[in-house]
Write a structure and sequence with these properties.
This protein is of the alpha/beta class. It has eleven helices and five strands. It has one domain: Ribonuclease H-like superfamily/Ribonuclease H (Nucleotidyltransferase, domain 5, 2-Layer Sandwich). Strands 3-2-1-4-5 form a five-stranded mixed sheet, with helices on both faces.
Length: about 290
């Protein structure tokens, strides 16, 4: 595995202000969202808004490097959308991680692009395609077939949209928690009720499921040996034991793991020891200071 790795996910709501400006609507906020949904249904036959009208309310990630792993979230509880984006984009100025997502090439990255432009931000480390750094002509974060950004939904469908699958279904099928911990899309409700911890936990859950699928993907491709895969899984379990907000994730994972022969060993009866410095995971348990 090429370190560092950054698994990420975003949560969004409709940007009512921008929507009103785009469609020249002068309506009370209570009526505006319904009007925008109606217009979108007329345009495309769906309530799912066009990408520039997705306002980011949470960005979560799992950072893995030679020092360990660290979950993090930026949310609207403490930061504006522009500040969240600045924090996230600054990561790529420091390091050039392998970026991993589920549907990131069709949703998360384009939304980040539009919203960064909306706020007048610059992010060449993420969006340069060789104009500045010639090396990125051949391996950049936008190219569908490059490995700098691995969109698992896309690569596991063999780049055929007819084969796209839901993160929830694939994670649960493989013996991981999926979204069974907090099923359904509740982001607007979490925001309205001020349940920011539930919002970040929801987003981080998607990140964790994506990470576990990524490990299985690397095993499939021969980029991880079986014993290496096992150590990464066990290290992830150990790390989550230090994250009390994800106790339910661990509990559902333990139950789901019993449904397949391969994942049944994810939770052995005896406690797992911390990998030594000589193991195939060359890092200590302390989190990275890069995030």
């Amino acid at each position: 595995m090429r370190l560092p790795v950054l698994i990420f996910d975003i949560e969004t709501v409709t940007d009512l202000k921008s929507g009103a400006h785009l469609y020249q609507l002068d309506l009370p906020e209570a009526e505006l969202e319904q009007a925008l949904m109606k217009l979108r249904r007329q345009e495309a036959g769906t309530d799912f808004q066009r990408l520039p009208l997705h306002e980011i309310v949470c960005i979560s990630g799992l950072w893995i490097d030679e020092h360990g792993m660290k979950l993090f979230s930026f949310s609207r509880e403490h930061d504006s959308e522009a500040t969240m984006l600045k924090k996230f984009l600054s990561i790529f100025d420091k390091r050039h991680p392998t970026l991993v997502s589920w549907n990131g090439s069709q949703f998360d990255l384009p939304v980040i692009l539009f919203r960064a432009m909306y706020h007048g931000l610059s992010a060449p480390s993420l969006f340069d395609q060789g104009e500045i750094d010639q090396q990125k002509r051949y391996n950049n974060y936008q190219n569908r077939y490059h490995q700098r950004h691995v969109d698992l939904m896309d690569v596991m469908a063999m780049f055929n949209g007819r084969h796209f699958q839901k993160l929830d279904d694939i994670a649960y099928l493989l013996g991981f928690p999926g979204k069974r911990v907090d099923a359904g899309y509740h982001v607007p409700a979490f925001m309205q009720s001020g349940e920011w911890s539930r919002l970040t936990r929801y987003c981080e859950g998607d990140v964790l499921n994506t990470w576990l699928i990524y490990l299985r993907w690397l095993l499939l491709k021969g980029q991880l040996l079986l014993e290496e895969h096992t150590l990464w899984v066990q290290h992830t379990i150990q790390y989550l034991h230090t994250q009390p907000q994800h106790a339910d994730f661990l509990s559902v994972w333990q139950h789901s793991s019993q449904q397949t022969e391969f994942t049944r060993t994810d939770f052995p009866e005896q406690s797992v020891t911390t990998p030594s410095n000589e193991s195939v995971m060359p890092f200590q348990s302390s989190p990275s200071s890069d995030i």
